Amino acid sequence: MLSSGQQMKIGTLRAIGHNIADSLGSGCGLLVGVYEMNVFGEASRSPNGVIDIDFLAGKATRGTASRALKAAIAKYREVLPAFCAKHGASMKDIKTLSARYSVDVPKGRIVVTVQDRAGRCWVDEYRGTPARHVKIVDKQGRIRTKRGPIKKLKVTAR
Q: 88-124: string of b/e by CB count within 10 Å (b at 16+)?
């Protein structure tokens, strides 16, 4: 834990966000003891093809989630304090921890948003299962991880 006045490294908080979001997205939530869930399948049946999850509140804030998925999301909220502590963080370090699951690309997309108590915010985009950063080719032809702000997801009416 950090003493007052010290800031948690945003990379640590991003790793926590990735791990929690990937666990839910994988369909096998070993972290919470729920072994069958399909957030991408439910997102595909949801209005606009997305499900937004607020992990701090333990709720789906957008889209239609089944009763079983809602229960699993609530369990992620319950284990979050211990999971943060295992990574040397505290719930007090996190102001926002959310994920958007969508099926607008093959194999699904997860957009994880993490904001720390100092207001620093980072948005990471992942694809597939397991969730991997999106890769791009830079001007010199090198493969790089896509960083920085992402374009707002298009929401299509169904």
A: ebeeebbebbbbbbbbeeeebbbbbbbbbeeeeebbb
Q: Taken in order 143, 146, 151, 156, is the CA torsion positive or negative?
A: positive
**What stretches of 2-150 show up as alpha helix (H) in DSSP?**
10-26, 39-45, 67-86
- Write down the pTM of the prediction: 0.84
Tell me the pLDDT tens digit for each residue of 82-108: 999 999 999 999 999 999 999 988 889
Which of 20, 50, 7, 79 has the alpha carbon at shortest distance from 157? Answer: 50
Cis peptide before 130 (omega within 30 of 0): yes
Comparing C-alpha atoms, which of 135, 117, 134 is closest to residue 125? 134
